[in-house]
Design a protein that fits this description.
It is a single chain. By secondary structure, the chain is an alpha/beta fold. The longest helix is centred in the C-terminal third of the chain and has 27 residues, at 243-269. The chain is globular. It has 2 domains: 11-127 and 309-326, ATPase, nucleotide binding domain (Nucleotidyltransferase, domain 5), CATH 3.30.420.40; 137-304, ATPase, nucleotide binding domain (Nucleotidyltransferase, domain 5), CATH 3.30.420. Strands 3-2-1-4-5 form a 5-stranded mixed sheet, with helices on both faces. A 5-stranded mixed sheet has the order 8-7-6-9-10, sandwiched between helices. The protein has 11 helices and 10 strands. The chain starts with 10 loop residues before the first strand and ends in a 23-residue tail after the last helix. The structure holds 5'-O-[(R)-(carboxyoxy)(hydroxy)phosphoryl]adenosine and zinc ion. Zinc ion (ZN) binds next to helix 4.
Length: 348
């Protein structure tokens, strides 16, 4: 199949259903978003205090056809105008991934269009290309989401070297658990972000963990436990806790670790371009801290817009475009891989 024709605009319809958002976008040439429809299930999962996988899959099935139709309508396109169908095939919740993968395979097969399976984290990283038109690899990228905390070297489009990752909780998970412990609902990240603005980040000295045998790995479970211990101790001593101070001090501990690891790696590997990605990259303190230090060190700092940080279809369409240019299309028997590693593509 000769799919690369640089004269023509390439419009990719991209599906993301790895967790609790049913999202579909139409993206032109990897960087221009023609439509980006996100149907969030947050309201239903909030009742249970977190994502319930069975409910997520069921809601994806109910929503996906409508979201695809909306994405095409908003872009002013029909199926005939679409050059390829892209879909997140891992990592994520297997039942949730399967809904998007089955839909994408059926469409690609019925329409005789190329199918492109995309790694979810590769999508998060590629969200930076949408909002920063001048950004090109190589650069260093910190990926911080609800399920992942990765420090990766982006060598080229689709080529990654993982130099650090979390040994336990993902940073978004820590945000969500700490939020729950101080009575904020799900998802906790944005709520901690907001409440922390009213608190003192130096009120409580929570630990900044490092991992002994790997300087770029992260660990957040100790920090999470330290917050829970602090709350329990206060309760036992009948001391009223200050939720805003806890939120601000916890967030400061997270920011310090993320910034120090990333800046150290930038120095060691000689990068003058740093990007952040993933849901937690929407955090105002994290964005602010990176902006300040990068300015001070004369490093270019990139982040996606807030809406592009959390799960969406446009980021998948962007990553897919660069795979398409390389002729990296998937077979029609593409399967969901819940624990897919970054930089690993399905067997062709
Ligand atoms: O990338 P994402 O949408 O889903 C995954 O791939 O995991 O990230 C969701 C995570 C949740 O843990 C949520 O609490 C966190 O991103 N998050 C934030 C903020 N907005 C979303 N964490 C901190 N501050 C925020 N403003
Ligand atoms: Zn995500």
């Amino acid at each position: 199949m000769d799919i690369v024709n640089s004269e023509k605009n390439i419009d990719i319809l991209a599906i993301e259903s790895s967790c609790d958002e049913t999202a579909v976008a139409v993206v032109r040439n990897g960087r221009e978003v023609l439509s980006n429809i996100i149907s969030s299930q947050i309201d239903i999962h909030t009742i249970y205090g977190g994502v319930v996988p069975e409910i997520a899959s069921r809601k994806h099935i109910e929503n996906i056809d409508f979201v695809i139709k909306e994405a095409l309508n908003k872009a002013g396109k029909t199926f005939d105008d679409i050059d390829a169908i892209a879909v997140t095939y891992g990592p994520g919740l297997v039942g949730a991934l399967l809904v998007g993968v089955a839909e994408a395979k059926a469409m690609a097969f019925a329409l005789s269009k190329p199918l492109i399976g995309v790694h979810h984290i590769e999508g998060h990283i590629s969200a930076n290309y949408i909002d920063n038109k001048e950004l090109e690899p190589p650069f260093l990228c910190l990926v911080i989401s609800g399920g992942h905390t990765h420090l990766a070297i982006v060598r080229d489009y689709g080529e990654y070297e993982l130099i650090g990752k979390t040994r336990d909780d993902a940073v978004g998970e820590a945000f969500d658990k700490v939020a729950r412990s101080i009575g904020l609902g799900y998802p906790g990240g944005p709520k901690i972000d907001k409440l922390a603005k009213e608190g003192n980040p130096d009120a409580i000295n929570f630990p900044r963990a490092s991992v002994a045998d790997s300087k770029y790995d992260f660990s957040f479970s100790g920090l999470k436990s330290a917050v829970l211990n602090y709350i329990n101790t206060c309760e036992m001593k009948n001391i009223k806790i200050n939720e805003a101070d806890i939120a601000a001090s916890f967030q400061k501990a997270v920011v310090d670790v993320l910034v120090s690891h990333t800046m150290e790696a930038a120095k060691e590997y000689g990068f003058d371009k740093i990007a952040i990605a993933g849901g937690v990259a929407a955090n105002s303190a994290i964005r602010g801290a990176f902006m300040d230090i990068c300015k001070e060190k004369n490093i270019s700092f990139y982040s996606p817009s807030i809406i592009m940080c959390t799960d969406n279809g446009a980021m998948i369409g962007s990553a897919a475009y660069y795979e398409y240019l390389k002729g990296n299309v998937s077979k029609y028997d593409l399967n969901a891989i819940p624990n897919l590693k970054l930089g690993e593509r399905e067997k062709q």
